[in-house]
Design goal:
The protein is an all-alpha fold. It is 72% helix and 0% strand. The longest helix is centred in the first third of the chain and has 31 residues. It is a peripheral membrane protein. This is Vacuolar protein sorting-associated protein 35. Plays a role in vesicular protein sorting.
Length: 790
């Protein structure tokens, strides 16, 4: 059916074009013969083709353009009186005798254009006559194109100030009156188009109407180009008349398009000075009009105008632009009760963008916009519409991007209230945006109050919100989020110890609610942040009198102990053990022996009770030995207890090679190089001999189980320990002992039962080269090495 209709239209259009060309041919012959009567006859017949009602606007436009081109030639003929011998006044009367109204009015407009140019009558009179005469055609499509032709031929002949057709003192008003009258009539015809034809093709009609909108909009463009339209005339005449027509037409398409036209074609300065009038029209528009888009465009135009020059900013303050826009948005959202929530949020986002560009220093305005958004969202369930949540994220991100400083956002009382309106997933997205802003701008959050507000904002990352659990989360996303929180904790800093301690307490309060999956990510940065403060306070001890929350190392360590304990119960024992050892080292630097001993005790308890994996035990015992070796705070009794424990655990590791390495590492516990360091040569030798015994046992076990000797690399490693202590002048380590060990290794390597080990061979060769190098170097060390035969 539709296909048939399109084919019919193409046929009718072809017939119409053929008729125009046929009559135009005879019209050209008449023009060439300077025969006015024939020219008028054929031009009227040609223009009669425009009387058709069968064509859609798109096809009608094609037909109209053919006739328009011919009318240009006719106008040139009319201008040359010498060719047709009739005065323009008589010609103006003559064309009115055309039999049909549509050709008559097209010819009248064409002659009228020549009449104005001849200046034989005032332009305003001719234009008034023409615009009134055009009322004779009330068919929507035919009338629109006729008036479009009138606008086209008259646009360079308006009685404007400074033009060739300027009239008396009110000349600009005459021009405005003509354009306004033509615009009003065209708009009426355009609106009436929707009632043409059956209702079932309404959608097609709306599309066709939309294609014709520029014919109406051109009038507003012409108005904006009239020189005489100054601010006063625009405010008192042009804008009220245009808006009256827009509001009264009660047509969704027309209202949306024309409001957009007004915003785009008239100067920003005029909009600013007539805000009241313009904004009053918005609540009166039809409920189905997309008000949010046109109002947002107005605010964007004004924002760009404000950004164009600092000189215009006082104008914004003078007209109280923010208050007026804010009030208008309130009225629009009240008037359009069915407006989707995303529409309202879009309006508040545009207002916020306007505020940040025009009044960046007015944080109270920013907070006011956020407050209005909260009010609009209150009483509604949490947002789940993806478009609305995206707009909320944009709304909350705008202040961060403008100020490049989260601290500024933290002072906005309504900021967290807007965030609370987001669903859990989007809340986390916004929390990540906040953290990324802090990282990008290296923002330092330096007060406990602000940290409290910040952690309330990012609570979606710190703990499970209602209805979600950590188990439901994507593993990779979860790790990225928690690592971001960990980085954030390092950005919280204050040079004042008391305030820094308050920050640490605030962070602890929040992260301890995070649950077992989050603590391994968030506790370590908190511990290290606290230890940084401890290092700063190293010299202090005891309580500071008269302080509400004294910041002393002892106080901080008391805070850290239960924090790490929570981590060990997660369980994340290996991480907890590392943190206990870090704290023990910090307590050592602060000369707090009881606290350091307590941390070591906790580490050993964890090792005994929680760490069962053999690989984890090896790592843990080496960490314990390494930390203990650096400790200098312990008295003899405490140190002996701890070293005894460490050597005991070393010898109890599952695999013999691991035992051997841990035992020879313990030798360093009895020989510390510091000025007041321990130097117990006998116990060093005991450890090394014990390590040798274990290495021998490992060899024998390999022979029994595999039928071949194990690798000799353990012996080479022990040899290197012997050399280390030999150079450190340990009297118990003699050259003869080293010589014996070298011979033992040689024997083992040459044994048929030993499994070849290239790494061990290379290591041993390198060690021998080192001994030879020391002998060749001479001096005291050379003499020491001299008895060794490598």
């Amino acid at each position: 059916m539709i296909l048939g209709g399109i084919e019919d239209e193409d046929k009718w259009l072809a017939e119409g074009i053929a008729a125009i060309q046929h009559n135009a041919f005879y019209m050209h012959r008449a023009l060439d013969a300077n025969n006015l009567r024939e020219a008028l006859k054929y031009s009227a017949q040609m223009l009669s083709e425009l009387r058709t009602s069968k064509l859609s606007p798109h096809k009608y436009y094609e037909l109209y353009m053919r006739a328009f081109d011919e009318l240009r030639r006719l106008e040139i003929f009319f201008k040359d009186e010498s060719r047709h011998g009739v005065s323009v006044v008589d010609l103006y009367e003559l064309v009115q005798h055309a039999g049909n109204i549509l050709p008559r009015l097209y010819l009248l407009c064409t002659v009228g254009s020549v009449y104005i140019k001849s200046k034989e009558a005032p332009a305003k009179d001719v234009l008034k006559d023409l615009v009134e005469m055009c009322r004779g055609v009330q068919h929507p499509i035919r009338g629109l194109f006729l008036r479009s032709y009138l606008a086209q031929v008259s646009r360079d002949k308006l009685p404007d100030i400074g033009s060739d057709y300027e009239g008396d003192a009110d000349t600009a008003m005459d021009a405005v009156e003509f354009v306004l009258q033509n615009f009003i009539e065209m708009n009426k015809l355009w609106v009436r188009m929707q009632y043409q034809g059956p209702g079932r093709v309404r959608e097609k009609q709306e599309k066709e109407r939309s294609e014709l909108r520029d014919l109406v909009g051109k009038n507003l463009h012409v108005l904006s180009q009239i020189e005489g339209v100054d601010l006063e005339m625009y405010r008192d005449t042009v804008l009220p008349r245009v808006l009256e027509q827009v509001v009264n037409c009660k047509d969704e398409l027309a209202q949306y398009y024309l409001m957009d036209c007004i915003i785009q074609v008239f100067p920003d300065e005029y909009h600013l000075q007539t805000l009241d009038t313009l904004l009053d029209a918005y609540p009166q528009l039809q409920p189905t009009v997309d008000v949010k888009t046109v109002l947002s465009q107005l605010m964007e135009r004004l924002s760009n105008y404000a950004a164009s020059s600092e000189d215009v900013l006082p104008e914004f303050l003078q007209v109280e632009a923010f208050a007026k826009l804010s009030s208008a948005i309130g009225k629009v959202t009240e008037a359009h009760v069915d407006m989707p929530i995303v529409g309202a949020i879009t309006l508040y986002l545009s207002l916020l963008t306007f505020t940040l560009r025009v009044h960046p220093d007015r944080l109270d305005y920013v907070d006011q916009v956020l407050g209005a958004c909260v009010k609009k969202l209150s009483g509604k369930p949490k947002l789940e519409d993806s478009r609305a949540t995206k707009q909320i994220v944009a709304l909350l991100s705008a202040p961060l991007e403008k100020y490049n400083d989260v601290v500024t956002a933290l002072t906005l009382s309504n900021y967290p209230r807007v965030m609370d309106r987001l669903d859990n997933e989007t809340n986390k997205v916004m929390a990540m945006v906040i953290i990324q802003s802090i990282m990008k701008n290296y923002t330092c959050i330096s007060s406990a109050d602000k940290v409290e507000v910040l952690f309330e904002l990012i609570k979606g990352l710190i703990k499970d919100l209602d209805g979600t659990t950590a188990d439901e989360l994507d593993e990779e996303d979860f790790k990225e989020e928690q690592n971001s929180v960990a980085r954030l904790i390092h950005m919280l800093y204050n040079g004042e110890p008391e305030e820094m301690l308050k920050i640490i307490c605030t962070v602890k309060k929040h992260i301890m609610t995070g649950g077992p999956k989050r603590l391994p990510f968030t506790v370590p940065p908190l511990i290290f942040s606290a230890l940084r403060l401890v290092r700063k306070l190293q010299c202090q001890d005891g309580d500071v009198v008269g302080e509400e929350l004294p910041a002393t190392p002892k106080k901080i360590f008391q805070l850290l102990n239960p924090t790490i304990e929570a981590l060990s119960s997660v369980p994340s024992s290996e991480l907890a053990l590392r943190l206990y050892l870090q704290c023990a080292e910090a307590a050592n630097d602060c000369d707090l022996e009881p606290i350091a001993y307590e941390f070591f005790t906790q580490a050993f308890v964890l090792y005994e009770e929680e760490i069962a994996d053999s690989k984890a035990q090896v790592t843990a015992i080496h960490l314990i030995i390494g930390t203990l070796q650096r400790m200098n705070v312990f008295g003899v009794e405490n140190r002996d207890t701890l070293t005894h424990k460490a050597t005991g655990y070393s010898a109890k590791l599952l695999k013999k090679p691991d035992q051997c390495r841990a035992v020879y590492a313990c030798s360093h516990l009895f020989w510390v190089d510091d000025l007041d360091g321990i130097k117990d040569g006998e116990r060093v030798l005991l450890c090394l001999k014990r390590a040798l015994r274990i290495a021998n046992a490992a060899q024998q076990m390999a022979t029994v189980t595999r039928g071949s000797g194990g690798p000799v690399i353990l012996f080479v490693e022990i040899l290197n320990k012997y050399l280390y202590f030999f150079e450190k002048a340990n009297p118990q380590i003699t050259s003869s002992a080293i010589q014996s060990l070298i011979e033992l290794i040689n024997t083992e390597m040459q044994s048929d039962s030993t499994t070849p080990d290239p790494a061990a061979s290379a290591f041993f060769a390198s060690t021998i080269r080192y001994i030879q190098f020391q002998k060749q170097k001479g001096g005291v060390m050379g003499e020491k090495y001299d008895p060794i035969k490598a």
